[in-house]
Every structure is written in C-alpha cells, then in structure tokens.
Amino acid sequence: MSRLDKGLGLRLGLSILLIVICAIEVDGFATMATLASIVENVALIGLLAAGLMLTMVAGQLDAAVASVAAVSAIIALLLGPYSLVLGIVVALVVAGLYGCGIGWIIARTGVSSLVLTVCMLIGLRGLALILVPQSPAVLADGLLWVSDGLVARVGPTTVLGIIGLVLILALGLGMRCTRLGLSLYAVGGNLERARGSGVNTTKVYMVAFAGSAMLAATAGILAALRSGSASGTGLDSFLLDGVTAAVVGGVSLEGGRGSIINVLLGSLIVRIIAAAAALLGMQSSVESIATGCILLAMLLLDDALGTRRGMKTAARWRVLGRPLRT
Amino acid sequence: MVAAMVDLSGVRTTASQSAQSKGRGSVAVSLQSLAPIAPIALIFVIAAVAIPGFASGPNLIAVVQASAITGIAAIGAAAITIVGKFVSLAIEQQAVTAAYVFTAVLSIGQPVAVAVAATLIVAVIIGAVQGYLVARGLNPIVTTLAFGSALFGAVVLLSNNRTITLRHNPLAWLGGGTSWGVPNQAVVFVILLAIGTVFLSHTRLGRQIVLCGANPKAAELIGIPISRLVIIAYISAALASALVGMLVVGQVSQASSNMFDGLTIDVVAAILVGGIAIQGGEGQLWRAGVGALILTMLSNIMLLLGLDAGVRLLLKGGLAAAVLLAMTVMRRRSR
C-alpha cells in the first residue's frame, strides 16, 4: 500500500510541477481553453490507457487498440445516416465480441498475446481500409450537433471530457470493488495461485480483452464524433499514446500492478507535455521524440523500482506466452 | 534449489529428444526440409497459370527484388525472435535512419566507403541501445515501439522532413543492377541467408543464441551471457535494416521519410508466416526468407488481381495470425 502511495505522490508532484512550469514559461497555457482541451484529451487517452490497463494488469498486452478504435469509429459513422445510436451500439458490440474471442483464444491456446494482437493490429487496419478505401466516413450534416455538443464547454472541461472521466472512474471502482476486478489482479500477480484458488482464468482473459477492445472503441468513436470524420488510416497514434499513458501511469507490463488514478495522472502528464509543445509551435516530430523518450524513461524507472527478481522472472515467463494449462 | 533441478531436467529432456529425432533416419529430415518449398511452388504454379502477367520477366524480377528487401530485414529481425524477444516494431524506422545517414554523408561529398561505415556504425549503436534496454528486462515490443518513435522523430526533425536526392549514386549497381539476370539485391539476400544459417547452427555464439531462446533459465544456469546475446541479436536486426536502407537508396537514389512505410508489418508477417517459433529457440533462419517470399508473391498476386491495399493488409494479418495459432497449438500437442 505504501508503495502505491509513493507512486501516486510521485505522479501528482510531477503533474503539479509540470503545470506550474508550463503556466509560467509557456504563453497561453494558463487559460481555460487550454485547460479544457487538456482535460478532454486526458479523458480520451485515459479511456485507451484504462483499457490497456485491464489487459496489462492481467499480465497480457493488447497491441491492437489503434486498429480496433479505427474500425469501431468507421462502423459507427457509416451506420450514422440510419441511426447514430444504432451505429455506436453495433460498433461497441462488435468490439466486445472481438475482444471476447481474442481473450478466449489466448486463454485456450496459451499463445503470446503481444504477438497475436500485433497480427490483429495489421489485419484490422486492413479491415478499416476496406470499409473506407478512399475518402473518410463523415458525420451526416443533420448530426453535426453531436460534434458541437461533445466539445461544448462545461466548467474546466467539455462534455466529451465528462463522459470519458465518468467511464474511467466507474471502471476504476469496478476493478477495485468487484470480485471480477480483483481476479484480474490475482491472475496477473500469480497465475498459478489464482487458478489454484478457483479463479476462472479463461473468463478473466475474455473480460480483460473485451474491456480493452470496448474502451478503445469508445475512445475511437468519441474522437471520430468530435472531428466529424473517420478515415481508414486514422487514429494510428493511439497505440503509442495509450501505452505511454498507461506505463507513465505506473501500470506494470509484468502484470498484477496498476491503478486507475495513476493512469489518469499518467495521461495528464503526457497531455500537458503535448499541449505545451503545441503552444510552443513545435513540430509533431518533437512530440514523437518526447513521447518515445518518456516511455523509455518510465519503462526503466518501472524496472528499477520493480519487485524482487524472482517474482519478475516468473512474470516474464508468463508474458512470454508459455502454454497455460487450462 | 527446486527451480534449478526442474530446469536441469528440462535440459536433459531436450537433449534426449534431439538424440531421438536424429536416430529416426534422414529421410524424414530431408522431407521436412523440403516442406517450405511446397507452398511457394504451389502458389507460383497456380499464379503463373491463372493470372496473366504474373510469369512475365519484369514482374518476376519485381517480386524477387521486393522479397529480397523484406527478406533481408526479416532474417536480421529473426535473430530477435530466435533469442526469445518476439519481434521488433522499429524496423522501418531503423531502415529510414540508415537511408538518411547514408545519403546525407554521400551528399556532403564523402566517399562511399565512409558513408557505408557511418551508416553501419549508427546501426550498431541503435541496435546496441535497444538490445541493452531489452536485456535489462524491459518489454521488447513496447521498448522498440518507443525507440522507433523517438528515432523517427529525430530523423524527421534533423532532415526537416525533406527528401534528399543523390545526383551521383555509387550503389546503383547493387541496388538496381542484375547479375546473370538475377537482381543483385536477391544475391545479397541469398548470401546473407547462407551466412546467417551457418552462423546459427555451426558457431558457438549462434548455438548459444538458439539455446537462450529455447530455455533462458537453463542458459543462465550454465553461464551463458544472455544480455550479450540479446544485444547481439538487436545489433544484427539493426544492421540488416541498415543494409535494406542502403540497398533501396541504391535503387531509387533518394531518401524520404515515408520510403519504408509498411516494412515493419511485412517483416513481422514474414517471420510469423514463415513459421519461426515465436517463443524463440528455433534456429531455422530460412523460414524468415520463405515467409518473405510467400508474402511478397501473395501481395503481387493480389495487386495483379486489382485487390485494394485494405484486403492485402487484412490477408497479411489474418495469415500471420493463422500460422501463429497453428504453430502454438501444434507445439502444445507435441508436448
């Protein structure tokens, strides 16, 4: 518990430090408009990172989130002319079923989730390009109020930000307070012991990957509704952004560790830096250098603060995808 | 102590298994080694009969050149898979970096030897840094994703995202030329594949790399320097990407930031479709080459059939996932 608090304090301190530095040094940072845009993007990236956290806590990783988000966004917008609600529901259901299938395959075959989801990242990107080969899918003219409504300002954030934050916090509560949420940590912390104490690991993996796919889909749909369009090649930065936010948020890639508040702070740190870079007029290449370097630094820090070597080796074996006995 | 005993017994079983399979006669072995030719030959014959234009000379040369590029990058990256660290997601960024370093050094008037040396040195550094990080225990896929992003950003920033065009191209003979009708890129590919295969199966270092992927605990117990081997694997992947970068610069006489879009996908798919065990520990390097050839032929066929980029990507991902799952299930059954 004490280490959890230390991590929380570290991230909280870092966020406040960054905010103070940016507010003093960067012109136009300390405005309500910047704040609202940062909180909105924190909610969007936070949804992705929270989904990744589900799989990472269970000791796996879903590398397909970027393509899942793109396909879901396209499905929602393509069905938009008939009924936007129907489109969103169909997109979420498809994502959920896909995630259940992936989780089931991983639990049953013991295949490495990293590699299988990299295949899915490739294949689903193809599906996105098949659905919208040329010009992007756009929101129908009659529905543009949805786009305006999502970015309408509410206090220090926007409607989109509130939707995202409510979903993220609900998920965090669910992970800490329900049997299923706790069994995610149990499976990621020590697979054999979790199985020995009667946890249904197949179900846990299915829930983790379905949750990850549905949260990625939510983030993708919200991003597409905000911009009013979804292209076949779009949202491809989601994987790097989501993984960076989750890892900066202290979710261990070795499983069993991660909390939603830290993930939100991780997203906040990443978005503050991105917003400051944009205000300073830096090129996007600087942002990708910064994102890459932050991610590497946090991976090293996570490793240095990591648990005892024996436990780490055990976790690494699991991530390496040794066959699971089910 | 208990763990140590378990590991040692694991080593013994592997040893006895390999002894058994040797005793089973060489007919099965030679049949097995012919197996990869079958899908290639099958695809080739069907395509040559059914699709007009496939068996034409220029098209076949294009297929061979494209598969040589993917293949060279894939046999380098396969070292990462064999040592047990899955795949790298920074392959195209490494190749772009090499292409820019090479053209930049040439365009300031340096001789070609200096340009090649500079490119290879940069590649060794890139590979060594990633290898060191992964050897420390960092997640290989996330590390290469982050490193690739930083590397690509740095290259775009330093080059101002400009395309550098060479007025005089000293590697044109290698990148675009042919020897006895075979593209020189393919010759380089075959030579590298032969060197790599001999290295993995007949040298101490190569065998240690294979063991390290097969059973890292056992390798550590018998005193194999795992970190060093992981670093060597990443350096070889970076060197292969650098070679790809230079070969393509030789072919097109310029470097641009999007010249290798999709190379990482092709290489990952080639390694998986070729059937190299993703858990590591199988030193069959030719599988990466076979995977590259199969994928390039399929891509070419789909292109000739007028299929969209989306369908091609979907089939690549689907085929890679199918082979991955089939391999995993077969491996489990055989235990």
TrEMBL record, chain A:
Q: Which residue spans traverse the membrane? A: 33-54, 61-79, 85-107, 114-134, 154-174, 204-225, 260-282
Regarding the membrane, this protein is recorded as: Multi-pass membrane protein
Kindly state which keywords UniProt assigns to this record, in alphabetical order.
Answer: Cell inner membrane, Cell membrane, Membrane, Transmembrane, Transmembrane helix, Transport
Identify the GO cellular component terms for this protein: plasma membrane
Keyword Nuclease: yes or no?
A: no
Record bears the keyword Ribosomal protein: no
Gene Ontology molecular functions: transmembrane transporter activity
Q: Which InterPro entries match?
A: ABC_transp_permease (IPR001851)
- Which coarse location class describes where this protein primarily resides? membrane
**Compartments (UniProt record):** Cell membrane
Looking up Pfam families in the UniProt record yields: BPD_transp_2
- The name under which this protein is listed is ABC transporter permease
Question: Native species of this protein?
Answer: Acidisoma cellulosilyticum
- List the lineage, top down: Bacteria, Pseudomonadati, Pseudomonadota, Alphaproteobacteria, Acetobacterales
